[in-house]
Amino acid sequence: MANEKDAKVEKAVKPSKEEKAAKKAARKAAKEAAKNAAKKEGKEKLGFFAKIAKFFRDYKSEFKKLVWPTRQQLVKNSAVVLVSVIVCSAALALLDFGLNKGVQGLYNLVSMLLPPM
Fold this sequence. Notes:
The structure is a single chain. The chain is mainly α and 117 residues long. It has helices at 2-13, 17-41, 48-64, 71-113.
């Protein structure tokens, strides 16, 4: 009875050669399955020049999807940008002018209140 328990404990602790081979085969099969799935999805590892070729193929296909604006759209969008730049520039100039005058006025007020050194 004790020998049977020892054999069971030894088997549970130390896997046999057949079990090791079965685990190894299962890992190999899983790795192959993952590799085949990656190939089906197009996610296989590519070489350096294959990546460059793929980049230019993708670039060409994306470039075909471009839609250039008409002359009317171009003029309209350019006018919007120009007006926006002018409005923002004017607002920034007014802010600069106001802050400059405010700081100068504050300096003059402080200099009047404090005695000269």
